[in-house]
Design brief:
about 180 residues; alpha+beta; three-stranded antiparallel beta sheet; 3 strands
Length: about 180
């Protein structure tokens, strides 16, 4: 009886599994990068479960998908009903714009005043937040990366901060003073 709705998830799952296998990544590696159980990712890949919008966005970002391919996966998951969302309320939901913004490479800078760091053996996830007028922490962006990439980002961030603090390579302290 759920046959018509389960077929799109099967296609979605097959495509996600193909992407994972093309990158030679295990279920554990990908599930760790997007912070879900490997069993759940396996159910998604088999078409037995539809990923939430957030999880699908993380998978799209993890696989570094082109916009047209990301939109196709979004539609396979059944999240293409923007018209239905507009009919639900008077205002455009905040997540409708975020979806478009996150799918496209957006050159705008998003400022935050908080970050939560979650590190596992599979990778690191940075969840950037911004305080709202009510003091509630609102998510701004979420970035996942491998441990190796996190180490590279840390080194580059330290180098950039030293560059700003000491005015470039000429003003950098000697190597022995680095901590």
């Amino acid at each position: 009886m759920n046959e018509p709705t389960s077929q799109p998830y099967k296609s979605l799952g097959t495509h996600l599994k193909y992407l994972r296998e093309q990158l030679h990544e295990s279920l554990d590696e990908v599930s760790g990068a997007v912070e879900i159980d490997a069993d759940r990712l396996e159910r998604i890949e088999h078409g037995q479960e539809r990923p939430s919008e957030d999880i699908l966005m993380l998978l799209i970002n993890h696989f570094n998908m082109q916009d047209h391919e990301a939109v196709q996966l979004w539609e396979l998951a059944g999240y293409d009903g923007a018209q239905d969302k507009l009919r639900m309320g008077d205002d455009i939901p905040a997540n409708a714009k975020q979806i478009v913004m996150l799918l496209a490479m957006d050159a705008r800078t998003m400022y935050t005043d908080g970050v939560d760091v979650n590190a596992t053996p599979s990778g690191v996830t940075l969840s950037f937040t911004q305080a709202s007028g009510t003091g509630e922490r609102m998510p701004v962006a979420r970035v996942g990366m491998s441990l190796e990439q996190a180490e590279n980002v840390s080194r580059l961030l330290q180098r950039a901060l030293l560059h700003v603090k000491y005015g470039g390579p000429k003003g950098l302290p000697p190597a022995a003073d680095k901590n």
